[in-house]
Write a structure and sequence with these properties.
single chain, mainly alpha, 16 helices
Amino acid sequence: MKPGRSRKQIFHRQAAGRQAAGRQAAGRQAAVRIFGTLLALALLVYLLSQQGWKEIATAIHQIPFWRLGLAMGLMLFSRVAVAARWHILLQAGEYRIPFRQSLRITFAGLFASNFLPTTIGGDVVRLAGAIQYRLDAATSAASLVVDRLVGMAGMAMMVPFSLPSLFNYRNATIQGSTVKLALTALPLGKWWQNVWKKMTSLGAKLYKASTLWLKHPTSLIVSLLYSWVHMLCLFFSLQLLLGGIGEYMPLWLIGGLYSLVYFVTLIPISVNGYGLQEISMTLIFSNFGKASMSDGLTIAILFRTLLLLASLPGALSLPDILSKTERNEPLIDTDPMA
Protein backbone atom coordinates (compact mmCIF):
# COMPACT_ATOMS: atom_id res chain seq x y z
CA MET A 1 0.00 0.00 0.00
CA LYS A 2 2.82 2.37 0.80
CA PRO A 3 4.32 2.22 -2.68
CA GLY A 4 0.84 2.90 -4.10
CA ARG A 5 0.36 5.87 -1.86
CA SER A 6 3.82 7.11 -2.76
CA ARG A 7 3.07 6.96 -6.49
CA LYS A 8 -0.23 8.73 -5.87
CA GLN A 9 1.50 11.46 -3.91
CA ILE A 10 4.08 11.87 -6.66
CA PHE A 11 1.28 12.12 -9.25
CA HIS A 12 -0.52 14.80 -7.22
CA ARG A 13 2.71 16.75 -6.73
CA GLN A 14 3.42 16.63 -10.47
CA ALA A 15 -0.14 17.71 -11.28
CA ALA A 16 0.11 20.56 -8.78
CA GLY A 17 3.43 21.57 -10.29
CA ARG A 18 1.95 21.63 -13.79
CA GLN A 19 -0.98 23.71 -12.58
CA ALA A 20 1.35 26.17 -10.87
CA ALA A 21 3.52 26.42 -13.99
CA GLY A 22 0.39 26.97 -16.06
CA ARG A 23 -0.77 29.77 -13.77
CA GLN A 24 2.66 31.39 -13.92
CA ALA A 25 2.71 31.20 -17.72
CA ALA A 26 -0.80 32.65 -17.91
CA GLY A 27 0.26 35.41 -15.53
CA ARG A 28 3.28 36.24 -17.66
CA GLN A 29 1.18 36.32 -20.82
CA ALA A 30 -1.36 38.61 -19.16
CA ALA A 31 1.44 40.89 -17.96
CA VAL A 32 2.93 41.02 -21.47
CA ARG A 33 -0.45 41.92 -22.97
CA ILE A 34 -1.11 44.61 -20.39
CA PHE A 35 2.37 46.09 -20.86
CA GLY A 36 2.06 45.86 -24.64
CA THR A 37 -1.33 47.57 -24.55
CA LEU A 38 -0.06 50.41 -22.36
CA LEU A 39 3.04 50.85 -24.53
CA ALA A 40 1.06 50.85 -27.77
CA LEU A 41 -1.52 53.28 -26.38
CA ALA A 42 1.25 55.56 -25.11
CA LEU A 43 2.85 55.56 -28.56
CA LEU A 44 -0.53 56.25 -30.12
CA VAL A 45 -1.09 59.25 -27.85
CA TYR A 46 2.40 60.50 -28.68
CA LEU A 47 1.73 60.19 -32.41
CA LEU A 48 -1.57 62.02 -31.97
CA SER A 49 0.10 64.84 -30.05
CA GLN A 50 2.83 65.18 -32.69
CA GLN A 51 0.37 65.31 -35.58
CA GLY A 52 -1.97 67.71 -33.78
CA TRP A 53 -5.26 66.95 -32.11
CA LYS A 54 -7.02 69.87 -33.79
CA GLU A 55 -5.97 68.80 -37.28
CA ILE A 56 -7.27 65.28 -36.71
CA ALA A 57 -10.53 66.58 -35.22
CA THR A 58 -10.94 68.88 -38.22
CA ALA A 59 -10.38 65.97 -40.62
CA ILE A 60 -13.04 63.91 -38.84
CA HIS A 61 -15.54 66.78 -38.93
CA GLN A 62 -15.09 67.26 -42.67
CA ILE A 63 -16.28 63.72 -43.47
CA PRO A 64 -19.86 63.93 -44.78
CA PHE A 65 -22.43 62.29 -42.52
CA TRP A 66 -23.64 60.00 -45.31
CA ARG A 67 -20.16 58.51 -45.60
CA LEU A 68 -20.01 57.81 -41.87
CA GLY A 69 -23.52 56.34 -41.91
CA LEU A 70 -22.83 54.10 -44.89
CA ALA A 71 -19.51 52.97 -43.41
CA MET A 72 -21.31 52.11 -40.17
CA GLY A 73 -23.94 50.14 -42.09
CA LEU A 74 -21.25 48.19 -43.94
CA MET A 75 -19.49 47.47 -40.65
CA LEU A 76 -22.70 46.04 -39.17
CA PHE A 77 -23.30 43.94 -42.27
CA SER A 78 -19.75 42.59 -42.01
CA ARG A 79 -20.63 41.34 -38.51
CA VAL A 80 -23.66 39.55 -39.94
CA ALA A 81 -21.40 37.91 -42.54
CA VAL A 82 -19.08 36.71 -39.76
CA ALA A 83 -22.05 35.13 -37.99
CA ALA A 84 -23.17 33.48 -41.25
CA ARG A 85 -19.65 32.09 -41.78
CA TRP A 86 -19.71 30.35 -38.40
CA HIS A 87 -23.34 29.27 -38.82
CA ILE A 88 -22.51 27.44 -42.06
CA LEU A 89 -19.70 25.58 -40.30
CA LEU A 90 -22.02 24.57 -37.46
CA GLN A 91 -24.59 23.30 -39.97
CA ALA A 92 -21.91 21.15 -41.61
CA GLY A 93 -21.28 19.60 -38.21
CA GLU A 94 -24.92 18.46 -38.22
CA TYR A 95 -25.92 20.77 -35.38
CA ARG A 96 -28.97 22.82 -36.11
CA ILE A 97 -29.65 26.11 -34.39
CA PRO A 98 -31.56 29.05 -35.87
CA PHE A 99 -29.43 31.60 -37.67
CA ARG A 100 -30.75 34.38 -35.44
CA GLN A 101 -29.27 32.53 -32.46
CA SER A 102 -25.91 32.15 -34.21
CA LEU A 103 -26.11 35.88 -34.91
CA ARG A 104 -26.95 36.62 -31.28
CA ILE A 105 -24.05 34.53 -29.96
CA THR A 106 -21.61 36.02 -32.49
CA PHE A 107 -22.47 39.59 -31.54
CA ALA A 108 -22.07 38.70 -27.87
CA GLY A 109 -18.61 37.31 -28.62
CA LEU A 110 -17.65 40.38 -30.63
CA PHE A 111 -18.75 42.65 -27.81
CA ALA A 112 -16.90 40.58 -25.20
CA SER A 113 -13.69 40.67 -27.26
CA ASN A 114 -13.51 44.40 -26.56
CA PHE A 115 -12.68 43.61 -22.95
CA LEU A 116 -11.18 40.12 -22.75
CA PRO A 117 -7.36 39.99 -22.67
CA THR A 118 -6.75 37.94 -25.82
CA THR A 119 -7.41 38.24 -29.53
CA ILE A 120 -9.67 35.16 -29.31
CA GLY A 121 -11.47 36.01 -26.07
CA GLY A 122 -14.75 36.44 -27.89
CA ASP A 123 -14.54 32.83 -29.09
CA VAL A 124 -14.80 31.71 -25.47
CA VAL A 125 -18.16 33.45 -25.24
CA ARG A 126 -19.27 31.91 -28.53
CA LEU A 127 -18.28 28.46 -27.27
CA ALA A 128 -20.27 29.01 -24.06
CA GLY A 129 -23.29 30.09 -26.07
CA ALA A 130 -23.03 27.05 -28.38
CA ILE A 131 -22.77 24.65 -25.46
CA GLN A 132 -25.88 26.18 -23.90
CA TYR A 133 -27.72 25.05 -27.03
CA ARG A 134 -26.59 21.52 -26.13
CA LEU A 135 -24.19 21.37 -29.03
CA ASP A 136 -21.23 19.04 -28.71
CA ALA A 137 -18.45 20.96 -26.95
CA ALA A 138 -15.60 19.42 -28.96
CA THR A 139 -17.30 20.01 -32.31
CA SER A 140 -18.29 23.54 -31.31
CA ALA A 141 -14.71 24.33 -30.32
CA ALA A 142 -13.45 22.84 -33.58
CA SER A 143 -15.95 24.95 -35.54
CA LEU A 144 -14.51 28.08 -33.93
CA VAL A 145 -10.98 27.01 -34.87
CA VAL A 146 -12.03 26.39 -38.47
CA ASP A 147 -13.96 29.68 -38.50
CA ARG A 148 -10.82 31.54 -37.51
CA LEU A 149 -8.76 29.61 -40.06
CA VAL A 150 -11.22 30.48 -42.84
CA GLY A 151 -11.02 34.15 -41.82
CA MET A 152 -7.22 34.03 -41.87
CA ALA A 153 -7.24 32.29 -45.25
CA GLY A 154 -9.44 35.01 -46.68
CA MET A 155 -7.13 37.74 -45.42
CA ALA A 156 -4.06 35.86 -46.63
CA MET A 157 -5.53 35.96 -50.16
CA MET A 158 -5.33 39.75 -50.00
CA VAL A 159 -1.67 39.95 -48.96
CA PRO A 160 -0.35 39.70 -52.58
CA PHE A 161 -2.24 42.90 -53.41
CA SER A 162 0.05 44.75 -51.00
CA LEU A 163 3.25 43.52 -52.65
CA PRO A 164 3.51 46.25 -55.34
CA SER A 165 3.46 48.95 -52.66
CA LEU A 166 5.95 47.01 -50.54
CA PHE A 167 8.35 46.59 -53.48
CA ASN A 168 8.03 50.27 -54.41
CA TYR A 169 8.78 51.21 -50.85
CA ARG A 170 11.80 48.95 -50.54
CA ASN A 171 14.38 51.69 -51.16
CA ALA A 172 12.43 54.51 -49.52
CA THR A 173 13.01 55.90 -46.06
CA ILE A 174 10.44 55.86 -43.30
CA GLN A 175 8.52 59.10 -42.86
CA GLY A 176 9.60 61.12 -39.85
CA SER A 177 11.48 60.38 -36.66
CA THR A 178 8.20 59.77 -34.82
CA VAL A 179 7.48 56.70 -36.94
CA LYS A 180 11.03 55.47 -36.44
CA LEU A 181 10.54 55.74 -32.69
CA ALA A 182 7.27 53.81 -32.88
CA LEU A 183 8.78 51.03 -34.97
CA THR A 184 11.81 50.78 -32.73
CA ALA A 185 9.67 50.54 -29.60
CA LEU A 186 7.60 47.65 -30.96
CA PRO A 187 9.72 44.45 -31.18
CA LEU A 188 7.66 43.07 -34.07
CA GLY A 189 10.44 40.98 -35.55
CA LYS A 190 10.87 38.84 -32.45
CA TRP A 191 7.14 38.44 -32.03
CA TRP A 192 6.72 37.40 -35.65
CA GLN A 193 9.28 34.63 -35.06
CA ASN A 194 7.42 33.43 -31.97
CA VAL A 195 4.09 33.53 -33.78
CA TRP A 196 5.54 31.54 -36.69
CA LYS A 197 6.86 28.86 -34.34
CA LYS A 198 3.51 28.56 -32.62
CA MET A 199 1.67 28.36 -35.92
CA THR A 200 3.90 25.58 -37.23
CA SER A 201 3.66 23.60 -33.97
CA LEU A 202 -0.13 23.83 -34.04
CA GLY A 203 -0.43 22.67 -37.64
CA ALA A 204 -1.28 19.06 -36.82
CA LYS A 205 -3.88 20.06 -34.22
CA LEU A 206 -5.56 22.48 -36.60
CA TYR A 207 -5.68 19.85 -39.32
CA LYS A 208 -7.26 17.40 -36.90
CA ALA A 209 -9.86 19.99 -35.90
CA SER A 210 -10.79 20.62 -39.52
CA THR A 211 -11.13 16.98 -40.62
CA LEU A 212 -14.92 17.06 -40.18
CA TRP A 213 -15.24 20.03 -42.53
CA LEU A 214 -12.85 18.55 -45.05
CA LYS A 215 -15.57 15.96 -45.58
CA HIS A 216 -17.96 18.84 -46.35
CA PRO A 217 -15.93 21.05 -48.74
CA THR A 218 -19.06 22.93 -49.80
CA SER A 219 -19.43 24.35 -46.29
CA LEU A 220 -15.83 25.54 -46.34
CA ILE A 221 -16.32 27.22 -49.71
CA VAL A 222 -19.54 28.92 -48.63
CA SER A 223 -17.98 30.06 -45.34
CA LEU A 224 -15.03 31.48 -47.30
CA LEU A 225 -17.49 33.39 -49.50
CA TYR A 226 -19.09 34.86 -46.38
CA SER A 227 -15.62 35.79 -45.17
CA TRP A 228 -15.08 37.66 -48.44
CA VAL A 229 -18.38 39.50 -47.92
CA HIS A 230 -17.13 40.48 -44.48
CA MET A 231 -13.79 41.64 -45.87
CA LEU A 232 -15.32 43.64 -48.72
CA CYS A 233 -17.53 45.46 -46.24
CA LEU A 234 -14.45 46.44 -44.23
CA PHE A 235 -12.55 47.54 -47.34
CA PHE A 236 -15.46 49.62 -48.67
CA SER A 237 -15.81 51.22 -45.21
CA LEU A 238 -12.16 52.24 -45.27
CA GLN A 239 -12.52 53.57 -48.81
CA LEU A 240 -15.50 55.69 -47.73
CA LEU A 241 -13.58 57.11 -44.77
CA LEU A 242 -10.45 57.78 -46.80
CA GLY A 243 -12.46 59.51 -49.51
CA GLY A 244 -14.14 61.67 -46.89
CA ILE A 245 -10.80 63.19 -45.87
CA GLY A 246 -9.50 63.55 -49.42
CA GLU A 247 -7.40 60.38 -49.61
CA TYR A 248 -8.24 58.10 -52.53
CA MET A 249 -6.95 54.54 -52.81
CA PRO A 250 -8.12 51.71 -55.04
CA LEU A 251 -10.07 49.01 -53.25
CA TRP A 252 -7.50 46.32 -54.05
CA LEU A 253 -4.75 48.36 -52.39
CA ILE A 254 -6.88 49.02 -49.31
CA GLY A 255 -7.54 45.29 -49.02
CA GLY A 256 -3.86 44.41 -49.38
CA LEU A 257 -2.73 46.96 -46.81
CA TYR A 258 -5.48 46.06 -44.33
CA SER A 259 -4.51 42.39 -44.57
CA LEU A 260 -1.07 43.38 -43.27
CA VAL A 261 -2.70 45.29 -40.41
CA TYR A 262 -4.85 42.24 -39.64
CA PHE A 263 -1.89 39.89 -39.27
CA VAL A 264 0.11 42.39 -37.21
CA THR A 265 -2.86 42.72 -34.85
CA LEU A 266 -2.82 38.94 -34.28
CA ILE A 267 0.48 39.32 -32.41
CA PRO A 268 -0.53 38.61 -28.78
CA ILE A 269 1.02 41.66 -27.13
CA SER A 270 -2.07 43.79 -26.68
CA VAL A 271 -5.62 43.47 -25.33
CA ASN A 272 -7.80 43.12 -28.43
CA GLY A 273 -5.10 44.86 -30.44
CA TYR A 274 -5.71 48.20 -28.71
CA GLY A 275 -3.06 50.66 -29.78
CA LEU A 276 -1.29 48.05 -31.88
CA GLN A 277 -3.98 48.12 -34.56
CA GLU A 278 -4.06 51.91 -34.66
CA ILE A 279 -0.28 52.26 -34.88
CA SER A 280 0.13 49.54 -37.51
CA MET A 281 -2.71 50.96 -39.60
CA THR A 282 -1.22 54.44 -39.38
CA LEU A 283 2.25 53.29 -40.39
CA ILE A 284 1.14 50.93 -43.15
CA PHE A 285 -1.40 53.25 -44.79
CA SER A 286 0.86 56.30 -44.54
CA ASN A 287 4.08 54.66 -45.71
CA PHE A 288 2.81 52.06 -48.19
CA GLY A 289 -0.50 53.70 -49.16
CA LYS A 290 1.00 57.20 -49.59
CA ALA A 291 -1.52 58.76 -47.18
CA SER A 292 -0.36 61.51 -44.86
CA MET A 293 0.50 60.58 -41.28
CA SER A 294 -2.38 62.62 -39.84
CA ASP A 295 -4.85 61.06 -42.27
CA GLY A 296 -3.60 57.59 -41.39
CA LEU A 297 -4.18 58.33 -37.70
CA THR A 298 -7.63 59.73 -38.44
CA ILE A 299 -8.68 56.62 -40.35
CA ALA A 300 -7.25 54.31 -37.69
CA ILE A 301 -9.22 56.05 -34.93
CA LEU A 302 -12.44 56.15 -36.94
CA PHE A 303 -12.10 52.50 -37.92
CA ARG A 304 -11.67 51.43 -34.30
CA THR A 305 -14.67 53.53 -33.30
CA LEU A 306 -16.87 51.89 -35.95
CA LEU A 307 -15.71 48.44 -34.85
CA LEU A 308 -16.68 49.20 -31.26
CA LEU A 309 -20.05 50.63 -32.26
CA ALA A 310 -20.79 47.66 -34.51
CA SER A 311 -20.30 45.28 -31.57
CA LEU A 312 -22.75 47.10 -29.28
CA PRO A 313 -25.75 44.88 -30.17
CA GLY A 314 -23.88 42.08 -28.41
CA ALA A 315 -24.27 43.93 -25.12
CA LEU A 316 -27.94 42.89 -25.16
CA SER A 317 -27.12 39.18 -25.37
CA LEU A 318 -23.92 38.86 -23.36
CA PRO A 319 -25.45 39.18 -19.84
CA ASP A 320 -28.02 36.48 -20.64
CA ILE A 321 -25.35 34.10 -21.97
CA LEU A 322 -23.07 34.67 -18.98
CA SER A 323 -25.88 34.32 -16.44
CA LYS A 324 -27.08 31.05 -17.95
CA THR A 325 -23.48 29.83 -18.05
CA GLU A 326 -23.16 30.44 -14.31
CA ARG A 327 -26.46 28.66 -13.62
CA ASN A 328 -25.64 25.93 -16.18
CA GLU A 329 -28.99 26.49 -17.90
CA PRO A 330 -29.68 25.74 -21.57
CA LEU A 331 -30.24 28.72 -23.82
CA ILE A 332 -32.94 27.03 -25.90
CA ASP A 333 -36.12 29.04 -26.46
CA THR A 334 -39.28 27.59 -25.01
CA ASP A 335 -41.34 28.94 -27.92
CA PRO A 336 -41.41 26.20 -30.59
CA MET A 337 -42.06 28.81 -33.28
CA ALA A 338 -38.97 30.88 -32.33
